[in-house]
Amino acid sequence: MKLVLASGSATRRALLAAAGLDFEVRPAAIDEGAVKRGARAEGVSADDTAVLLAEMKAMRVARAVPDAIVIGADQLLVCEERWFDKPATMAEARSHLLALRGRTHMLVTAVLCQRGGDRLWTHIARPRLTMRAFSDGFLDDYLAREGHALLSSVGAYRLEGLGVQLFDTVAGDHSSVLGLPLLPLLGFLRQTGAIVA
Hints:
By secondary structure, the protein is of the alpha+beta class.
């Protein structure tokens, strides 16, 4: 059965490839910022917003490949009721990291599978991460070494690299932290016969 990832995320692509899946990548262009702002204004929860974004991506791609199982995913970072987006500039990345320093935040990570007009399956993971009280000197060095790569990551960190040094504790599945709850997704795909059980 044909699998399509409705995401331009290199990390999600790498997770699926490392798991041995045969899939196509078709990023879905949606205005995530506008959707999040609208959801916040209407009082929609972070869980429901992450699912909505994953569904919008999957549905957009599913129209073009109605016989495929389309995988949509999204992730929101929530810290003390504040939702964080991907930083647009390095100054904003610094600001995000200072706001998260010494605090615990949650990554609401949604994955959804769609075929044509039918939602087949949804899963939400909620890893919790606590940043250590790192020094300003560490932050300066971190930003200089990671550079603009941080602008592609909500929270301005990449746990799969130097960003791991920002944390005291991480509670949750590693792939969910990276943006795709892989084990539940693989379980669903085995149940449907999309991959060999």
